[in-house]
Amino acid sequence: MTARHEEIADELRRAIDREEYTVGSLLPAETDLAAHYGVSRGTVRQAVAALTAEGLIGSRQGARRVVLASRRSQSFAELRSFAQWANAMGREATGHVVTQEYRPATKEDAVRLQLAAGTPVLHVLRVRGLDGEPVLLERTVYADWISPAVESIEPDCASVTQRLYEDTGLVFAYGEHVIDAVSAGAQDAELLGIRRTSPLLRVRRVTTTREGRPVEWSDDRYRSDAVSFSVHNSIDNNALARKTAN
């Protein structure tokens, strides 16, 4: 049987996900939460401690808790697929392939995937969703050595990462991400169900195996109202680098 403080913690997580408590806002005081849930302040304190440990909320001594993030935030401290991230939130990942075709590797493809220019590589345009709501466009270019395995995957596969692991044993081990903002063009707007020129969060990434062999490079565009990212750094370990736009 689930303990009461665990139930309250889960209800608070869902409330944060629904933006009943938005990032930067204050949670109600412990006495108010205790009255709302009909429990003691000690039980509330246990629930709040769980959310603090997860990084969803923070506090300063003598101050009310501040919402720092929601489970819609994904940290770059870990490499997770879209489906893994969705499942961690208790959401259903969906997806379907819009276009899929082989093209000769461009100069950019060749550099990113460490291939000879002109090598046939697989280009895939995929729409990803949370509970059926489109939130992400993936424009992915797969290296020639993994392209046949990707091509054989059904168009509505929820997790290409998981399927490639099951079919080939491939593990996506390392990722380099470049983040910026772009405006939605006509195709982006149509596929995501948003207005043209709406802001999108773009993440360009190259993913490799444990041995450093490039598997794919992708231009991922997220609806800015649906997803955010977080980067945790410290004086000893800084995963975030500032670069000029290009």
Summarize the structure.
The protein contains eight helices and ten strands.
Average pLDDT, to the nearest integer? 86
Secondary structure: number of strands: 10
Gross geometry: elongated
Helical fraction equals 25-40%
| Sequence of secondary-structure elements | HHHEEEHEHEEHHEHEEE
How large is the radius of gyration?
A: 21 Å
Question: Which residues sit in consecutive blocks of at least 5 with pLDDT less than 50?
Answer: none
List keywords for this structure.
about 250 residues; alpha+beta; six-stranded antiparallel β-sheet; 8 helices
Textual characterization of the structure:
This protein is an alpha+beta fold and 246 residues long. Helix content is 28%, strand content 30%. The strands form three sheets. It has a six-stranded antiparallel β-sheet with strand order 4-5-6-9-8-7. Strand 8 (199-208) and strand 9 form a beta hairpin. Helix 1 packs across helix 3 (41-53) and helix 2 packs across helix 3 (41-53). The longest helix is centred in the N-terminal third of the chain and has 14 residues, at 4-17. The protein is elongated, with a radius of gyration of 21 Å. It starts with a helix and ends in a 16-residue tail after the last strand. The mean pLDDT is 86.
